[in-house]
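Reproducibility note. Readers wishing to regenerate the assembly model reported in the main text can use the exact inputs given here. Chain order matters: entities are listed in the order in which they were concatenated for prediction.
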Amino acid sequence: MAMTMTQKILAGHAGLESVCAGQLIEANVDLTLANDITGPVAIREMEKAGFDSVFDRAKIALVMDHFVPNKDIMSAQQSRECREFAKKHGIVHFYDVGNMGVEHALLPEKGLTAPGELIIGADSHTCTYGALGAFSTGVGSTDLAAGMATGKAWFKVPSAIKFVLRGKKAPWVSGKDLILHIIGMIGVDGALYKSMEFSGEGVAELTMDDRFTICNMAIEAGAKNGIFPVDERTREYIAGRVDRSVTEFAADADAEYDEVYELDLSALRPTVACPHLPENTKTVGELGHIEIQQAVIGSRTHGRLDDMRIAAQILKGRHVASGVRAIVIPATQAAYIQCIAGGVALIFIEAGAIVSTPTCGPCLGGHMGVLAEGERAISTTNRNFVGRMGHITSEIYLANPAVAAASAVAGYICSPEDIK
Amino acid sequence: MLAKGRVFKYGDNVDTDVIIPARYLNIADPAVLSTHAMEDIDADFVKNVRPGDIVVAESNFGCGSSREHAPLVLRENRVSCVIAASFARIFYRNAINIGLPILECAQAAEAIQTGDTVSVDFDTGVITNETRGETYQAAAFPPFIQDIISSGGLLKSLKKRGV
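Running the prediction on these inputs yields the following structure tokens for the assembly.
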């Protein structure tokens, strides 16, 4: 029976010839991931249930990224719990302050995720690694505890929606604009329980960063996973990072899809998601005059070096508007070093922005840029729910790094073409 | 297994950031954490909820973050069941994995209102609205999931199977 790309990966990991949508399977996992918020819950659950060992100490990643460098005593306790667990079990991929990064930017960079692999993470944005042609999905702490202990997870095999891409992006348009456009089109539950499979000649036009951003936000349409076919760009990205053998999967030509959408990349314009759902999308041109008090550039959605360079290109020789706080957060230690070494960090600082060490921080209203009552931010992050970045009356507009940087300069939401 | 309680009704897309805001995720003690349940959309929820009460919502309940703290704070507040037209997939797994009963039923989600008294029979999936004299039928769980629930959660079911 014909299978989607996702179904083939699941079948392969369940030891089955084929699977079909709706089937319940138990599959072997190649990597499990937890962070300083979800990790402690998983560790306690695992120990409470009487599991005293892990399935493979080299296939567990623990990344301290949400409330680090620890913002208060309680957060510090949680990081310590993870640190002690990592030491006790000899966890190979434990990342703490000084070598960490925002988890979903860090793992691909370290070569821990590769085409054809099956990855679960106690973080909803674990779906990011679909950019590499892997099946990856977010789970809760109990699923993660089971995964760490047994190396297995249960899944209901998803059906899929296919997005066929063609054309080339216009200037200042990124993967963020494509995924926001799609979420605006199908809604925040438009792909509930399903895979989002991307295909078509337009895929070749998307950088790996674009693909990571798109898959990162598949969950914002309710999807189980987002996935891209493996091509030369993917192989180039993993070269030098992944030294194990990888299996490339491709969807069968006659695989069945619940829906098929054709999208022309050239028709996309810089797009924002207005409060308080990622589906409330408008192009920047359709917005009225929306003043901002904060701009956040970075996070797991957009903290990679190319994102930083795009923002720097706009901020170079310009200054952040009076009354706007601009916060730049490279996503990993490597991106942070490159920002400093390449002079990008200085461009930001001279423009009146601040450059932070990697952290999830403001994305979830943790620290490093929490909003007061009634304040408004433009942010390259992935959620704009009520209270997500601070007070429940504060507002978040989601955008790509170029739009966020231009808006920081203007003091209101605008496109890079709108600033002098 | 049966549940019966008064209903707290919410709309579409109730996300895990409002079920338990991220600013409280540094709290390790579930009892303390649970005092902040739902506060960003219903400041009086914790004050008014009684053991056995039922949360009813429309579509995509529990969307957003994977935090298991979300079903956990509802369970800690002794919510006996969540009924929704549909659930976000990670919340759905998490609720089953920690033993918080949930039911998908669009008809019930539409008809039931705040303050109604509702009883639920988990074995048959029948939801009875005692206030309005109506019944609704929810889909039953597949045997694999029933086994997780009857074992008291995922980890206990794995132990039982000797994994």
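We highlight two features of this model. Chain B touches chain A through 41 residues (CB under 8 Å). The mean pLDDT of chain B is 94.
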